[in-house]
Design goal:
This protein has about 130 residues and is mostly beta strands. About 10% of the residues lie in helices and about 50% in strands. The longest helix has 10 residues, at about 10-20.
Length: about 130
Amino acid sequence: MNSVRHQIHMTAEWISDYAQSIEAPVQTINGKLIAPATMPIIFWQDFDIPWLIIGEPLLHGTQKFSYQAPITAGMILDCELALTGEVQKEGRQGKLTFYTHTLVCRCEGELIVTAETVLIRVGDDHDKKVYNS
């Protein structure tokens, strides 16, 4: 399985706590708090991701966010996280494997945000599969 789904309930408290943790200003629209642009990166903590090995060290590569609308307090987001790519390259430390993940979040069927994150595994140990084929 290379994708998982989870529903995320956005609360004003969660948005406020996250904004404070990254020292970002809290903004509002129509009286509702707006989540900082990078907040979807922490949505991963609510997913059970079967293709990642718990405790295996991974480096955070890149991340990109593409918004169609802001995430606001009170939204219920239907999110899907998918492993969308795997590329191996040779680096100074040996083999590098780049795992591209795409997170798509919708609210009431409307696309809100697409986030792409690349995680990197260093090493030649092929016995440690990061995902299930």
